[in-house]
Amino acid sequence: NCTLARRSLSGESYIFSPGDKNEAVPKALSSECVQVCLSASLTGDDVVTVNTPAFAESVTEGDVRWEKAVGDTVAEDEVVCEIETDKTSVQVPAPAAGVIEALLVPDGGKVEGGTPLFKLRKTGAAPAKAKPAAAPPPPAAPEPVAAAAPPPPAAPIPTTMPPVPPVSAQPIDSKPGETTAAFSSCQVKMNRMRQRIAQRLKEAQNTCAMLTTFNEIDMSNIREMRAVHKDPFLKKHNLKLGFMSAFVKASAFALQDQPVVNAVIDDTTKEIVYRDYVDISVAVATPRGLVVPVVRNVENMNFADIERAIYELGEKARKNELAIEDMDGGTFTISNGGVFGSLFGTPIINPPQSAILGMHAIVDRPVAVGGKIEVRPMMYVALTYDHRLIDGREAVTFLRKIKAAVEDPRVLLLDL
């Protein structure tokens, strides 16, 4: 019989026994809750063995990175180690205050769900009595040093200098020096997330017949709409109104108009799978690498819903608190290189999806408007798509649909 302690990602802790009634278990607990099995009844003392939490179905193993060492004192819920999977990192806290007694997995070691991680002696438990150390042996007597032999007689100092050969007047042959400037380098092991990113991008390159089509968007109207409504929007929703929500909403609008862009090829059955929902992955750059949390059911969202979802997912990504469920799925991806100043680029498909939209920087450029040259805020956009499934006509039509919706948001309201 072991007590089960579950801690939800929100930070709340619950402790219950297998015999407790089901209604005592909070429904908010998800599969990402950390489960700890206390082995005190087995060991006869207050030593807790903490196991690896259960992973989602799409994750099989992870790498351990220790935050604490043997002998460190930890508080309840203090992070002891972090398990890095190919999608996110899972923090493992101490189930109670105590002292780390043993680390059962080396730093960087691979673990699966349920693997024992470390042992914790809870505060107040008496440590195991250590065997008395044996007295150190007395120092050995120094061995006698043999008498030094008398030094040989010094050589006589010459009274005359030896003859010096004459120096040739020929020019010295200049050769490059044998030593060159030292250049240092270091090798750093790729973390699991970077390895997974590299693997997926290479899979996309090897599997998809990727092709990219381009267009440009006049951002004048959407800029004006944002300038007029950003303060009332902030006051009502407590959210900043950005450009990403307009592109997410426009993408959902275009995906419903061109459902093949929202579809995917099932390579096992050789069938095309059409989805009647729109889940858009939004690429977010973090210090650990690129992550793509998913905004779900965008077709049913308004601008405020989208901005709130993007903000919450972005905060979780920056704090390294994304759960695996936050990144699973997704039918289409948007990548915004414009926040880093990118003017032009060709994004790579995020498999198993069939297309990705690349946004870029807004730059004032001269354009022809009604037979006149005007300076307008312009953005290049790129759509990379899997040509095995999507024809050029459908890709161009899709991108033009996004262009029309962003340049004139009334298109979204009128469903044109």
Automatic annotation (TrEMBL):
Compositional bias segments (type: Pro residues): 149-159
One GO molecular-function entry: dihydrolipoyllysine-residue succinyltransferase activity
Keyword Transferase: yes
Pathway: Amino-acid degradation; L-lysine degradation via saccharopine pathway; glutaryl-CoA from L-lysine: step 6/6
Cofactor(s) the protein requires to work: (R)-lipoate
InterPro entries registered for this protein in UniProt: 2-oxoA_DH_lipoyl-BS, 2-oxoacid_dehydrogenase, 2-oxoacid_DH_actylTfrase, Biotin_lipoyl, CAT-like_dom_sf, Single_hybrid_motif, SucB
Subcellular location: Mitochondrion matrix; Nucleus
SUPFAM superfamilies linked: CoA-dependent acyltransferases (SSF52777), Single hybrid motif (SSF51230)
EC number(s) stated in the UniProt entry for this protein: 2.3.1.61
One GO biological process term: 2-oxoglutarate decarboxylation to succinyl-CoA
Chief place of localization: mitochondrion
UniProt cross-references to PROSITE patterns, sorted A to Z: BIOTINYL_LIPOYL, LIPOYL
GO cellular component: cytosol; mitochondrial matrix; nucleoplasm; oxoadipate dehydrogenase complex; oxoglutarate dehydrogenase complex
Annotated keywords: Acyltransferase, Lipoyl, Mitochondrion, Nucleus, Transferase, Transit peptide, Tricarboxylic acid cycle
Region annotated Disordered, chain positions: 128-159
Gene3D superfamilies per UniProt: 2.40.50.100, Chloramphenicol acetyltransferase-like domain (3.30.559.10)
Sequence similarity: Belongs to the 2-oxoacid dehydrogenase family.
Summary of the function given for this chain in its UniProt record: Dihydrolipoamide succinyltransferase (E2) component of the 2-oxoglutarate dehydrogenase complex. The 2-oxoglutarate dehydrogenase complex catalyzes the overall conversion of 2-oxoglutarate to succinyl-CoA and CO(2). The 2-oxoglutarate dehydrogenase complex is mainly active in the mitochondrion. A fraction of the 2-oxoglutarate dehydrogenase complex also localizes in the nucleus and is required for lysine succinylation of histones: associates with KAT2A on chromatin and provides succinyl-CoA to histone succinyltransferase KAT2A.
Protein name, as recorded: Dihydrolipoyllysine-residue succinyltransferase component of 2-oxoglutarate dehydrogenase complex, mitochondrial
Gene: DLST
